[in-house]
Design a protein that fits this description.
With 227 residues, the protein is mostly helical. The protein has one domain. The protein is 85% helix and 0% strand. It has ten helices and no strands.
């Protein structure tokens, strides 16, 4: 690879990171929202770093992962579950769960969600790098500061404007629904049309909002009931 091609590939990777980091940053922001400031920064940095390390390890098999049935289906269902849990946690008092438990749980969510959502990102970076593993590692590592900055910014905005939690949950509902509908097994068996996709996305968003609010209200009522 010539120096010119190397530089152009590096710039392409930076642009890919900027364009494709949005969904991942939103999931991470939602996962760490219930943490306090210091734990939130640790959770985002640790989760993103672990996810990138695993992304580098999976780059060689990324194209194979994308063709496997049930991979995107499982990832989409996991994203939908995170969306429900975010709404439930939003109703809890800050000290409802021990900080270490919340921190480890958030890191685990970040790693799993990032991996299931990032196969297309990995392929895009691998294609731009043209097989140069140094550039692949550079591109995946570069995603850490983008995701960390975006996630912390989104989480802070949600603290300031709680209505953004519902907007974020709605976006996660659409992301999770799209992942489910784009799974090879679902495409092969259901052949969903665009109107069906829009209908399912809307139903999933509504179901997440209703389920999250009801579960959160039930937990809050149980916590307030004298033993």
């Amino acid at each position: 690879m010539t120096a010119g091609h190397f530089i152009l590939s590096g710039l392409s990777i930076v642009l890919i990171d900027l364009l494709l980091a949005g969904d991942n940053a939103l999931v991470i922001a939602m996962a760490v929202r219930s943490l306090s400031g210091p734990e939130r920064r640790i959770g985002v940095a640790a989760g993103a770093a672990l996810a990138v390390v695993l992304r580098v390890a999976l780059t060689a098999v990324a194209s194979r992962l994308l063709t496997l049935e049930y991979v995107e289906l499982a990832g989409g269902l996991f994203v939908l579950w995170i969306a429900v849990k975010v709404l439930v946690d939003a109703t809890d008092p800050p000290d409802a769960a021990p900080a270490p438990r919340r921190l480890l749980q958030a890191i685990w969510f970040i790693v799993l969600a990032d991996l299931t959502m990032s196969v297309d990102n990995i392929l895009a970076i691998a294609g731009a790098a043209r097989g140069h593993y140094g550039l692949i590692a550079f591109g995946l590592a570069l995603s850490i500061p983008f995701v960390v900055f975006s996630s912390n910014l989104l989480a802070d905005l949600m603290d300031r404007y709680p209505i953004l939690v519902y907007l974020g949950v709605g976006i996660l509902g659409k992301v999770g629904g799209d992942m489910v509908l784009e799974d090879r097994f679902v495409l092969r068996t259901a052949h969903p049309t665009d109107p069906i996709r829009y209908l399912i996305d809307g139903l999933l968003i509504a179901a997440i909002l209703v389920a999250g609010r009801r579960i959160g209200a039930a937990r809050r009522k149980h916590a307030e009931t004298p033993a």
